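Now read the record:
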Amino acid sequence: MIEVKNINKSFSGNQILHDVSIDFKQGEINLIIGASGSGKSVLTKCIIGLHEVDSGSVLYDNREFTNMDFKERKDIRKEIGMLFQGSALFDSLTVEENVKFPLEMYANKSNEEVLDRVNFCLNRVNLDNVNHLYPAELSGGMQKRVGIARAIALNPKYLFCDEPNSGLDPQTGIVIDNLIQEITEEYNITTIVITHDMNSVMETGDNISFIYQGKKWWEGNKHEILKTDNKELCDFVYASRIMQKFRNI
């Protein structure tokens, strides 16, 4: 579980986050949604320590991250997996080398153990016999799956996914959504997904936090989001043509 308590963050006198508090549940998909510029990315960077908060706290399973020194934070970061927008694979490395990267950096394992873990992770995301291919030789969906394999290589307790369906067709997006959900439940991970994709919201949205102008404006689930009378949230949700069909159900 990750607890965000009363986070405030400003840049050059411009306040971006206003007293944001959210509990992200273990073993479930936790979605952060909101328009561009709403503060989603800043909030995420505060949670993982890329931005220092002005006030408030972030707790990883009751460990107060905001007050930790560099070494203590590094220990928690070893427990975090990241799936970046666009996958962010190293173009000059093979699939195997990409998935190996965090293992060689942080894990104290033999070469044989590292390769076993790489193959396990690739198999878990339904990718076999691609070890020696390069990212340019893969489809967008396959690149995302390699990104997930790399993100789970260290068996993380926490998984952050930034726009995991960006650039994918709807069918492939569903495959990625299902894979993230399966891995979250199977390994009991606290997963946080930042997304604009309302298909993802309706497929996986058991815990949804809507950020509006730097504030937590609404929270609920995929069923409640269809019944809300929150004007700003409705404007955001029904801006998507995909969601128009749900309005009349």
